[in-house]
Design goal:
This protein is an alpha+beta fold and about 260 residues long. Helices cover about 25% and strands about 35% of the residues. The chain has a single domain, classed as Endonuclease/exonuclease/phosphatase (Deoxyribonuclease I, Chain A, 4-Layer Sandwich), CATH 3.60.10.
């Protein structure tokens, strides 16, 4: 068995425009946190080219796999970063959360103008040759009806993959859904595949750089049932220096012996 740490981290997409919490001011704090923690895998949401280039330049121990969400393959997207010394990328699926998942930039009727994409990476641990699947999620915010439809697409994708793979998995990211929502109820009730939330103890994640009195939980880490039976610890990264936060979301870290 080996130690394994996985993190979900919504970066907040604005490079500038958030005052002292603009990415240009937060970047050093983010690098310091990641360099100190050294997680094995990080699922980033709300990544733009400038932030991705900055992180990749200063974190050479990681490989970065980027998924733009727009039809032109530009703009905001997702990134899965994994330790290059520990893992090989065995395969990668990127699909849009729409009725035409292979059409870049496609959306569901009634959702926000922002296309939504999902990353699904199969990683192989170099030393043991074990594989695990990491599914990076950022659901739409416009309504629970849309978020549920998108989550069903992700669950169907994962169920198909697991039919062939039988591998451990993690689904993590920004679900834009609170714990009592239909989307999270769907995750808890799913049987194909069966999910277990590892972050149930977390009370809130979205805090708008410490300005929200009604801070809420919309970020989650789920895993397969066998993984959830292992002993694990969950940490909310609450680092803040002079009012500057890592992001407007608290990143969530899960550590276990894998």
């Amino acid at each position: 068995m080996s130690h394994f740490q996985i993190v979900t981290f919504n970066l907040r997409f604005l490079w500038d425009g958030d005052g002292k919490n603009s990415f240009i001011h937060r970047g050093g704090l983010i690098l310091e946190k990641i360099s100190t923690e050294q997680p094995d895998v990080i699922a980033f949401q709300e990544v733009v080219d400038k932030s991705a280039d900055f992180l990749e330049q200063h974190l050479p121990q990681y490989n970065f796999v980027y998924a733009h969400r727009d039809a032109e393959y530009i703009g905001e997207g997702l990134v899965i970063a994994y330790k290059r010394a520990k893992f090989n990328l065995f395969s990668l699926d990127t699909f849009w959360l729409s009725d035409t998942p292979q059409v870049a930039g496609s959306v569901l009727e009634g959702q926000s103008p922002c296309a939504r994409v999902c990353q699904s990476a199969l990683l192989q641990e170099k030393q043991t040759h074990r594989v695990l699947r990491v599914v990076n999620v950022h659901l739409d915010y416009i309504s629970q009806e849309i978020a549920v439809k998108q989550m069903r697409l992700i669950l169907a994708h994962l169920d198909e993959k697991l039919f062939h793979e039988k591998t451990p998995f993690f689904i993590l990211g920004d679900f834009n859904s609170e714990p009592d929502s239909e989307t999270i109820a769907l995750c808890h009730s799913s049987t194909h595949p069966r999910l277990c939330e590892l972050t149930e103890s977390v009370t809130h994640t979205f805090h708008a750089f410490g300005t929200r009195q009604d801070a809420c939980k919309i970020d989650y880490v789920f895993a397969d049932t066998a993984t959830a039976q292992k002993a694990y610890t969950v940490t909310r990264w609450e680092d803040e220096v002079n009012g500057i936060y890592l992001s407007d979301h608290y990143p969530l870290s899960v550590e276990l012996e894998f």
